[in-house]
Amino acid sequence: MEVAGYDRARELKAFDDAKTGVKGLVDARVEKIPQIFVLPSDNVEEVSDTNRADFSIPVIDLEAIENDSIGHEMIVEKIRDASETWGFFQVVNHGIPVSVLEEMLRGVRRFFEQETEVKKQFYTRDVTRKVVYNSNSDLYSSPAANWRDTFFCFMAPNPPKPEELPDACRDIQIEYSKHVLRLGFRLFGLLSEALGLERSRLTDMDCANGLTFVCHYYPACPEPELTLGTSKHTDDVFLTVLLQDQIGGLQVFIKDKWINIPPVPGALVVNIGDLLQLISNGKFKSVEHRVLANHKGPRTSVACFFSTSLAPSSKLYGPIKELISEDNPPKYRETTVQEFATYSYSKGLDGTSPLLHFRI
C-alpha cells in the first residue's frame, strides 16, 4: 500500500548514498522495514505447502564418478533426470573439503561485518570495477528492493590481483574459486554425457570459462512477510553452484508450487542456467527460484555462476546441432553471452525469464 507523501526515488537515493546496505538498517535497529522493501500487494504470494515429501530435490552422490563405470552411469542418469525435471539438484562427495566450505561462509560474514568505513571503499554501482559491493543490483528499477546485501567479482578467466580482493575473505575466496572451477569441469562433463554428447563437449564450447563469484548476506528481517531476500528469477548463465548456510530460505518453483531446498550439510546446490537451457534446446530446464526473508539471520550464501557475463564476446551460442532435428527444430536464436547478460541485467529481477526474448 502506498504511503501518503512517500517519495520512492528520494528514499532509494538516500539508502544508496548511505552505502551501508540492509545491514546498516539492522544495525540501526529498525523495527519496520522501509517502504522501498515492501512488495506490491499483488506480488505477495502465498508461501505454503512447501515441505511435501514427493517434492524433494535430488541429492546426488558424486563419489563413484571416477572409478566405478556402473556408478558413473547411474550418476549421469540422475543428473539427466534432475536437469530435465527440476533444473536443480544437490551434490555431496563433490571433492571440496567441508573445512573450505565453512571457511568460505565465515569469509562472507567477515566481509559484511567488518568496519563500515573499510567496506564502503568497495561500494559501487559500476559493474566494471574489480570488486563490487552494493545492495540490490536493480535497486532503481525493481518494484521492491530485496532484503540483502551483495558483493561480487569475476574470478575467471581474468581474476583480480590478490591485493585487489578484500582482506576479510581474500585467501579463502581464491582457494574456493579454484575448487569450484575444478568441480565445474566435472559437472559439465556429466551434463554433456547426460545430453548424449561427448564428455568434453560443453567444456570445448567454453561453457566453463567464466566464473562470477557472488556473495550474499541476508540480515534478520523484522517483517519477513512483507519482502523477499531475493525476488523470483532464473539465472542468466550456463550453470550455478551455490553454497548456502544452514538457515534455509531458498525455494524453487516447480509444478505451480514454491518448494523449499533444505540445506544439506556439506552439500552444494547446482542449478541449470538460461544459457544451458538455450544450447540444450530446452531439454535441460532453467527454473525460477527465490529466497525468503527470515526473522533469523544473517543467512549467507556464495553463488558461483559459470558465465563470462558482461565481458566482450563474439562467440555465438545456439541450440547444439546434435540436439535438433526436423521433429525438434531450434527453439532459440543464436546469441553471445555478452548480449544475453546485457539484456538480462538491463531487465533486472522482474519475474520474467530473459529466454523469452530469444525464443524463435
UniProtKB/TrEMBL annotation:
<keyword id="KW-0847">Vitamin C</keyword>
<dbReference type="GO" id="GO:0009805">
    <property type="term" value="P:coumarin biosynthetic process"/>
</dbReference>
<dbReference type="GO" id="GO:0002238">
    <property type="term" value="P:response to molecule of fungal origin"/>
</dbReference>
<dbReference type="InterPro" id="IPR005123">
    <property type="entry name" value="Oxoglu/Fe-dep_dioxygenase_dom"/>
</dbReference>
<feature type="domain" description="Fe2OG dioxygenase">
    <location>
        <begin position="207"/>
        <end position="309"/>
    </location>
</feature>
<keyword id="KW-0560">Oxidoreductase</keyword>
<keyword id="KW-0479">Metal-binding</keyword>
<dbReference type="InterPro" id="IPR026992">
    <property type="entry name" value="DIOX_N"/>
</dbReference>
<dbReference type="InterPro" id="IPR044861">
    <property type="entry name" value="IPNS-like_FE2OG_OXY"/>
</dbReference>
<dbReference type="Pfam" id="PF14226">
    <property type="entry name" value="DIOX_N"/>
</dbReference>
<keyword id="KW-0408">Iron</keyword>
<dbReference type="GO" id="GO:0046872">
    <property type="term" value="F:metal ion binding"/>
</dbReference>
<dbReference type="InterPro" id="IPR027443">
    <property type="entry name" value="IPNS-like_sf"/>
</dbReference>
<dbReference type="GO" id="GO:0016706">
    <property type="term" value="F:2-oxoglutarate-dependent dioxygenase activity"/>
</dbReference>
<dbReference type="Pfam" id="PF03171">
    <property type="entry name" value="2OG-FeII_Oxy"/>
</dbReference>
<protein>
    <submittedName>
        <fullName>1-aminocyclopropane-1-carboxylate oxidase-like protein 1</fullName>
    </submittedName>
</protein>
<dbReference type="GO" id="GO:0031418">
    <property type="term" value="F:L-ascorbic acid binding"/>
</dbReference>
<comment type="similarity">
    <text>Belongs to the iron/ascorbate-dependent oxidoreductase family.</text>
</comment>
